[in-house]
Automatic annotation (TrEMBL):
It comes from the Bacteria. Coiled coil: none annotated. This is 2,4-dienoyl-CoA reductase (NADPH2). The lineage of its organism: Bacteria, Bacillati, Actinomycetota, Actinomycetes, Kitasatosporales. GO terms for molecular function: 2,4-dienoyl-CoA reductase (NADPH) activity; FMN binding; iron-sulfur cluster binding; metal ion binding. Residues 11-326 form the NADH:flavin oxidoreductase/NADH oxidase N-terminal domain. One of its GO terms (biological process) is fatty acid beta-oxidation, unsaturated, even number, reductase/isomerase pathway. Its cofactor is FMN; [4Fe-4S] cluster. It holds the Pfam family NAD_binding_8. In the N-terminal section; belongs to the NADH:flavin oxidoreductase/NADH oxidase family. It comes from Streptomyces melanosporofaciens. Keywords: Flavoprotein, FMN, Iron, Iron-sulfur, Metal-binding, Oxidoreductase.
């Protein structure tokens, strides 16, 4: 049954010669199941699973049209090669089998190399250097523009031969077609003519195939079209295509992290709607039924999502059926979904896995495993951080045991609830809300402010899963510094009134140190010193997030970065800082010190239950993805043992 609160999203729509079953689109992204430029086993299964989730139109991305646009590691589909056609047929068949319309997005990167090594020199309409590249491209010769047009035609022919229903041209994110269209990167001003030639070449292959084009709506970089330039361009392109897809940004800014809480194209939709007659696709940061409804009300005909469907491919069916509370939310952390290491993975979705694996690989620590002694059907999960939450939920869904979740604190989430309190990091709160809703719906007995001591109530359980987390430690904490976890838990009051805060990072450049800096900014601290034994500030967070973080910090405070340095002590005169290169010492007169300490697993209580597993940070402190994957794996193993008996092997 379709939910009455979102009827517009459920309505079919005719685009070109095809009718879409609803208004929800999986916008361009790649599965990562590609090697040497060709699809691998697992690629078709990924796209079939995505189609089964209910999206009407699936746009496959990560597809280049020319050798000079393909990174040499071969993890992007190279559709100029005829040998790509046959393996792509399996991808298209999988999408069609689940009722989705299949479109292939084509891109030429031009001067943008994605930061990846290439066998060839980057080429563009001019030698204007990208701010994201160390060198300027070479300028395309006049005759080479014919080659660009032919590259799009040949790749389109291969896509259509594989069975795709249409083509989307990527003229956004600062890639080659936008480089042609922008007067700042194409002094010849023939960009529209080039785009028209590419469109005509594709139309010459098939008049029935869908043809769309994607544009960025903002002018955030030198190459991006200004609103006035886009307004002038759209009416000229509109009659030539079947739909227009709008998104935001350029490379390094087009994948917004959790600091972006509202879809950025919403404010532009009314203006854009007035400029075109074709269906309009609104893309980027749409994750909720409310945001989808806002886009459709503002003039979009279709709403596109990528990361939200990576986190939960069933989002369309759940939203359209009025089950939005069941959607596993994308938190926009930009971690695994942006690395393709080795394939597309997701921090919050443990079902995404490398080739040959049933789910994301994980190995809970086995402390006891004697299935024959498990005569009852009760499981205790001790600790309600991400590992414990996922384990409890997965066990409840398996319906093999009564599940009790113990948590010593007065709220769910563990360290993740602390991370969600950091400025611009509220995406984690959406994940915790999901777990809270689902645990309640599945009947999990959640016992807050309860410590499960040895020899106590845990003895009555057949299986015990220890997800007790870790604690932050540092010698500096013992001499007056505040731990980063404590600072974030207390929030702005922890740093309010400080004139100079020193942040002693652990050198690994991950989020805790960055979060403390943003907390200090939120507290109005005018001077911040960041000391790290590493080589850079924020060096390990996702590249897009680092760009956005630096943009947020610009002009907010005096931020001094001291790389290759370690804070060694706190005395009456200030913080002693050792310089690794010179061997010298400096004293920094800060009036508040926050340290990113080492996190150590809490001591695990001895247990004599038949089945005892340890998961998450209680094994070794790592990332959220490890915790969730180990929670799921522990649940799978315990459920199987309670059903049939098994040994603790994968």
């Amino acid at each position: 049954m379709i939910a009455s609160h979102l009827p517009a999203a459920a309505a079919p729509l005719t685009v070109g010669s095809l009718t879409l079953r609803n208004r929800l689109v999986a916008t361009a992204h790649a599965s990562g199941f590609v090697r040497d430029g060709l699809p691998l086993s697992g690629d078709a299964e990924y796209w079939g699973r995505l189609a089964a989730g209910g999206a009407a139109l699936l746009i496959c991305g990560g597809t280049t049209v020319a050798p000079e646009s393909a990174p040499r590691q071969g993890n992007i589909l190279q559709l100029h090669r005829p040998e790509a056609v046959e393996p792509l047929r399996a991808r298209v068949s999988a999408m069609h089998a689940e009722g989705a319309v299949a479109v292939c997005q084509l891109v030429h990167l031009g001067r943008e190399t994605l930061g990846a090594p290439s066998y060839y020199a980057p080429a563009a309409p001019s030698t204007v250097r990208s701010p994201r590249e160390p060198t300027a491209p070479r300028a395309l010769l006049g005759s080479e523009i014919d080659d660009v047009v032919e590259a799009f035609r040949v790749s389109s022919a291969h896509a259509l031969a594989a069975g795709f229903d249409g083509i989307e041209l990527h003229a956004a994110h600062g890639y080659l077609l936008e480089q042609f269209l922008s007067p700042r990167t194409n002094p010849r001003r023939d960009g529209l003519e080039v785009l028209e030639r590419v469109i005509a070449a594709i139309r010459g292959l098939s008049t029935a195939a869908l043809l769309g084009v994607r544009f960025s709506v903002d002018a955030s970089e030198d190459v991006a079209l200004t609103p006035d330039e886009l307004a002038e361009l759209l009416p000229a392109v509109d009659p030539l295509v079947d739909y227009v897809n709008v998104t935001v940004g350029v490379r390094t800014t087009y994948v917004r992290d959790m600091a972006t809480e509202r879809p950025p194209v919403l404010d532009d939709l009314a203006r854009l709607r007035s400029l075109i007659t074709r269906p309009l696709v609104a893309s980027h940061a749409f994750r909720t039924a409310a945001a989808i409804g806002d886009a459709l009300a503002a003039g979009a005909d279709l709403v596109g999502m990528a990361r939200a469907l990576i986190a939960d491919p069933d989002l369309p069916r759940k939203v359209l059926d009025g089950r939005e509370t069941e959607v596993r939310p994308c938190v926009a952390c930009n971690e695994d979904c942006r690395t393709f290491d080795p394939v597309l993975l997701c921090v919050v979705n443990p079902d995404l896995a490398p080739p040959g694996e049933p789910r994301r690989p994980a190995a809970p620590l086995v402390r006891a495993w004697d299935p024959p002694r498990a005569t009852g059907q009760r499981v205790a999960v001790v600790g309600a951080g991400p590992a414990g939450l996922e384990c409890a939920l997965s066990l409840a869904r398996a319906k093999v045991a009564d599940v009790v979740l113990f948590e010593a604190a007065d709220r769910l989430g563990g360290q993740l609830s602390t991370a969600a309190l950091a400025p611009h990091r509220a995406g984690w709160a959406a994940l915790l809300s999901f777990y809270e809703r689902m645990l309640s719906a599945m009947g999990v007995d959640v016992r807050l402010r309860r410590t499960a001591e040895p020899g106590g109530e845990l003895d009555a359980f057949d299986a015990v899963v220890l997800a007790t987390g870790a604690v932050e430690t540092s010698p500096l904490i013992e001499t007056g510094a505040m731990g980063s976890s404590a600072a974030l838990a207390r929030g702005v009051p922890s740093l309010a009134g400080a004139g100079h805060v020193l942040v002693a990072d652990d050198g690994f450049g991950w989020w805790p140190g960055c979060d403390v800096v943003e907390l200090a900014v939120a507290a109005g601290v005018p001077h911040i010193t960041f000391v790290t034994p590493g080589t850079a500030f924020a060096g390990a967070i996702p590249p897009e997030s680092r760009v956005q973080l630096l943009q947020r910090l610009s002009g907010t405070c005096e931020l001094d970065i001291m790389p290759l340095c370690t804070a060694t002590g706190i005395g009456p005169e200030g913080v002693t800082v050792a310089h690794h290169t010179s061997g010298g010492m400096t004293t920094v007169a800060a009036d508040q010190v926050v340290v990113v300490g080492e996190r150590r697993p809490r001591a695990a209580p001895d247990r004599t239950n038949p089945l005892v597993l340890t998961i998450g940070d209680a094994v070794v402190p790592r990332r959220v993805a490890h915790a969730i994957a180990e929670g799921r794996e522990a649940a799978v193993r315990i459920a199987a043992a309670l059903r049939h008996g098994m040994t603790p092997t994968r």
